[in-house]
Design a protein that fits this description.
The complex is a heterodimer of chains A (358) and B (52). By secondary structure, chain A is an all-alpha fold. Chain A has one domain: Na+/H+ antiporter like fold, CATH 1.20.1530. Chain A is 72% helix and 2% strand. Chain B has 52 residues and is an all-alpha fold. Chain B is rod-shaped. The chains are: A mainly alpha (358), B mainly alpha (52). The interface between A and B is large, with 49 and 31 residues.
Chain lengths: 358, 52
């Protein structure tokens, strides 16, 4: 396991795969696997000595505080303007969550129970905090591999998405031009938006209230215009501090008995399947919409509905420019991408409600 | 060994969950479209008042 910890640090440093998370996870993995390490719980002479990493885990993950604090930071970083200019992109933010639900079904075929399967499926949210939140609720024993898979595949979006998109679209479809709308989004709408989304989402799916509420609270800090320094603190200091503790806490679950199992390989494989299904779901939904639309939508935008922000939007924009250098898809792709952020958080809440009710 | 009872539970959750998610985000789409239209109308009216 110590070598796995070193390998995670290597991936973070040399390949730059989500270094902010993988370095703390990797280092914590080393710490928990040192024999008689005082960083984890030890029973000495029949007395339990709590390890600091287990304390972090209990305080931040069991109580769900760390992922929720990260959501405040994420919300304060996101500009929903491109989505408000093109609200139709909301539909792609929903469609591209297909991988979550499809992978959950596939996972049950590999012997996982429904709670574990839901936690694995949520890797397809392409959203680390949501994955941690759901896995922390349903399958704490799988938290390590699920987090590693979620963050690693997010970094691999530029490798995973293009072949799937090319397989499902024709050259002509990829060349479809999207004209800029030029809609001016005023401050009132930007302030109403986070409140409206919180109200509607929480009333329809109360189990998503904490997730969506914290995300939108962060966004309100950003958009209200009177809390600029607090918004900047959320985007920088809060995000960085919580990320350190989140990574260390997850690493505390990376012990040999929990990680070195065939299940881990299945989880890594299913994570990849989830990202592929997400991309396919978004693209196919866009193609389905095009059957009814006079003015066609570039179906590649459907793939930007996954929540790997802003990586996925960039990938779609670059693919569009490759087919036609005059095609400028970025703002539409960013719109779909931030819709995916809302979609993935909601999907997490919906899964919690449905699976808890079984 | 495949546990079909878990599989069918997951299938049910998958179908209901995905359709519900699409429904909620469609509601967002319609309500935001409405708000953006309403406020841009309101703004253009107040702009023209200012011009007067």
């Amino acid at each position: 396991m110590i070598f796995i910890g070193i390998f995670l640090i290597y991936l973070a440093v040399s390949k730059e795969y989500e270094p902010a998370l993988l370095i703390p996870i990797g280092f914590s993995t080393i710490l928990v696997n040192i024999p008689l390490s005082s960083a984890v719980d030890q029973v000495i002479d029949g007395v339990l000595h709590k390890g600091v990493l287990n304390i972090f885990f209990d305080i931040g993950i069991i109580t769900e505080i760390f992922p929720l604090l990260i959501f405040i930071a994420v919300g304060s970083m996101i500009d929903f303007g491109p989505l408000l200019e093109n609200p139709v992109m909301f539909l792609f933010g929903a469609a591209a969550q297909f991988g979550i639900f499809a992978t959950m079904v596939v996972a049950t075929l590999l012997g996982f129970d429904i709670k574990q399967a839901a936690s694995i499926g949520i890797i397809g949210a392409a959203d680390g905090p949501t994955s941690i939140y759901v896995a922390g609720r349903f399958a704490k024993e799988l938290l390590g591999p699920i987090s590693v898979a979620a963050y690693s595949y997010m970094s691999l979006v530029p490798i995973i998405q293009p072949p799937v998109i090319k397989l499902l679209t024709t050259k002509e479809e990829r060349k479809i031009k999207m004209e800029p709308k030029g809609v001016k989004i005023n401050k009132k709408i930007r302030i109403i938006f986070p409140i409206l989304v919180t109200l509607v989402a929480s009333l329809l799916a109360p189990s998503s209230a904490a997730l969506i509420g914290f995300l939108m609270f962060g966004n309100l800090l950003r958009e209200c215009g009177v809390l600029n320094s607090i918004s900047k603190t959320a985007q920088n200091e809060l995000a960085h501090i919580v990320t350190i503790f989140l990574g260390l806490s997850i690493g505390s679950t990376m012990t040999a008995d929990k990680f070195l199992r065939p299940q881990t390989l299945f989880i890594l494989l299913l994570g990849l399947v989830a990202f592929i299904f997400d991309t396919a779901g978004g693209v196919l939904f866009a193609k389905f919409l095009n059957l009814f639309l006079k003015r066609k939508i570039n179906p590649m935008l459907g793939a930007a509905g996954i929540s790997a922000f802003p990586m996925s939007a960039r990938v779609i924009h670059q693919l569009g420019r490759k087919e036609d250098p005059t095609n400028y898809l970025l703002m539409y792709a960013v719109g779909a991408n931030v819709a995916g952020q809302i979609g993935s958080v909601l999907a997490g809440g919906i899964l919690i409600a449905l699976v808890s009710g079984i | 060994m495949i546990n079909f009872s878990e599989f069918f539970k997951a299938l049910r959750v998958g179908i209901v969950g995905y359709l519900f998610l699409i429904l909620v985000l469609t509601l967002f789409f319609l309500s935001i479209k409405f708000f953006v239209k309403m406020f841009s109308k309101y703004d253009s009216r107040s702009d023209s008042n200012e011009a007067k």
